[in-house]
Amino acid sequence: MRRAVLVSAALAAVAFPSSAFAHAALLHESPAYREELSSAPRNITLRFDQQVDALPNAIVVLDPRGVNLALRAHAIDRGLVAPLRRLPRGPYTVRWKALSSDGHVVSGVYTFGVRVPAAIVTDAVGAEGPTTSEHIVRWVYLVGLALFVGGLGFQLLVLRGAAPTRRFYLIAGAGAVVVLETGIVAFLLRAEDALQLPFRAFLYGDLSSIAGGTRFGQAFIAMELGFSLAFAFLFLAWLTDRVALLWPALAIGAGFASGLSLSGHSSVSRAEEVADWAHLLAAALWVGGLVQLAVVVWPLLPELRRTAFRRFSRLATVCVAVLLAAGTYLSIERLPHLRDLWQTGYGQVLIVKLALVALALAWGAAHQFLVLPRLERGGAGNGLARSLLGESAVAMSVLLAAAVLVDSKPPPRQLPQPTTAAHRR
Fold it and tell me: What is the largest CA-CA distance in the chain?
């Protein structure tokens, strides 16, 4: 009897269209999202897939100072209309909310410009920008990236030929899950800030302008799809015991290593994007390899300690060289003047990061020049696992500084002054 009731309920759910119980969805807006108009519009018109009711302040149009230039909105057939005061030249932010037929309040935000380009929606008026919570989420993302991509790189490039252990799969799999979940959290935090809504109302927010209309949203979608595929290869490698499947997982994970970094400060050139990618990939291989060496090789594979340490030392040298080269290039590009290094917030965070990198390099040099010769002579390397974990902790602190830098805006470059007619010949 109970089974019959469940089957009937399932059939009823399928029989009735879900749209009958869905909240309203925005279909069209005028002016359009990020449209640059040659003249000021007279009103804002929003069209939905069902009838909606106007709420107080249903549509507000904010200038860069936060002044609302929209008059009282009213409902039309499946839509809302708000007359506008005269809009001078400039960028504008539209924030809207409507009561749909299911009783839920739906909300959204988009931007347009009058004779100027529109701002991206994550920089809309009212958005506060990256918060401490976002910095922490990005740091957790980078740690997960190191455990996943760095773990794969260590297994394939350092322990080549050795069968992967169960602990390797657990660490790499946990890293992949962390990357996927923190990517979702980062997207929700940025969307919540752009919409400027409490979480309860945010659940019914229109995220289309953020997901498809911003670099952040596009990077989020690509990253989630890419790492889902990489995680699938990792899972299949564990399930079928075929190490060869780890190679496509590493290739895909490495390809999407920049992930959320591409959604931070906008790179002004393709070269900066490549440098960002190389910087994060080198850091992930370095940090993830340290964790694998300390947590997998030292306690579980004593017969491979000497070989793994020697090979990883060579890999770490290459990673650190790439890390320093890419970091130096990015610092030169993003700090127009040397004084910006100590006079701006971006530069001050960079100083902290450089100090942590120097500490990690000194730690690694001690391993290279003191511990490795001892292992070559047949020493046991007692206490090295704890020392490797300490170096890993410092390296993860470097990732924390990197997470803050990703969200921080570098100091603006001064544009060259136009040449006046008096100076022309």
Answer: 96
The edge-to-edge listing of strands for the beta sheet with 79-83 is 26-30, 43-48, 79-83, 74-76
95 membership: H or E segment, kind and range: strand 90-100
Q: Using only C-alpha atoms, what is the Rg of the chain?
A: 27
The one-letter amino acid code at 125 reads V
For residue 245, being part of any structural domain is answered with yes
Separation of alpha carbons 158 and 100, rounded Å: 58
pLDDT digits (tens, 9 = 90+) for 297-345: 988 998 888 889 889 888 988 888 888 888 888 777 777 777 777 777 7
Distance CA 362, CA 355 (A): 11
Domain boundary among 119, 151, 186: 119
C-alpha separations of 2 from 8, 93, 97, 145, 172 in Å:
10, 53, 42, 46, 43
Owning domain of residue 73: 21-119
Residues 229 and 263 in one domain: yes
Identity of residue 425: R
CA distance 400 to 152: 22
- C-alpha to C-alpha distance for 101 and 120, rounded to whole angstroms: 30
d(CA 188, CA 133): 11
Is the whole model's pTM more than 0.90, yes or no?
Answer: no
Indicate the residue among 119, 146, 175 that finishes a domain.
119
Q: How many folded domains does the chain comprise?
A: 2
14, part of any domain = no
pLDDT tops 90 at residue 70? yes
32 CB-near residues (< 8 Å, 6+ apart): 112
Give the separation between CA 203 and CA 57, rounded to whole angstroms.
20
Q: Could you tell me if residue 127 is inside a domain?
A: no
Spacing of C-alpha 348 from chain mean position: 22
